[in-house]
């Protein structure tokens, strides 16, 4: 089994009123950046994706320095909380746009994986929020990235729907050795990760297994559940 793609990130830069001072390495199949809104998590994803390139930063993927590499050449796919689908394209065309080879087999696989066959000819405006998010993830995976970045893509979903979608993405990425770095402030979602990196005010304050990093939050959650 190939090793999980390794990501190394260094960033020392202001963005708005926040100053990010962060350095971390990921080696696990599914890593979560966990922390409150406004702590710099999304900015770190944009840095990794190549959409923000401050001078005092460094990004390596499998020991290859991609700091100056344009976003479209990084083999990294980013899915945001608000899916940026092409409104004039159908679901099929959106997913095909993400596929480098534009092969029918690859596109059909995405339809099967995410249950999108019935929506193939629909436009984004006619889809529900959850459906649009599934299309956005399918388009990202159709590009066969080495690293998939998920920026709070499961926020607002019904728990059952979220769990099913997470499992679909996890299974697909594990089979193809695609590493996942996901941003969330949702505790149940973070507890399912292989590794958690805790971010507060632009700083990495803890990293390790979910049980280690989120032990206090987990105790509180269990205590609240027991009182119901």
Architecture blueprint of SSEs:
Blueprint: E1 7-15, E2 18-26, E3 30-34, H1 41-49, E4 57-61, E5 64-65, E6 76-79, H2 91-98, H3 104-114, H4 129-142, E7 147-151, H5 159-175, E8 179-184, H6 187-191, E9 195-200, E10 203-208, H7 210-213, H8 215-226
Parallel strand pairs: 3-8, 3-9, 6-7, 7-8
Antiparallel strand pairs: 1-2, 1-4, 4-5, 9-10
Helix pairs in contact: 2-4, 3-4, 4-5
Compute the number of strand runs. 10
Structural class: alpha/beta
How is the quaternary structure best described? Answer: single chain
The CATH superfamily of the domain at 76-144 bears the name P-loop containing nucleotide triphosphate hydrolases
Q: What is the CATH-assigned architecture of the domain at 76-144? A: 3-Layer(aba) Sandwich
Query: How is the largest sheet built, in terms of strand order?
Result: 6-7-8-3-9-10
Are there runs of 5+ residues with pLDDT below 50, and where?
none
Tally of contiguous helical segments: 8
How does this structure look, described?
This protein is of the alpha/beta class. The protein has a domain at 76-144: Rossmann fold. The chain is built from 8 helices and 10 strands. The mean pLDDT is 91.
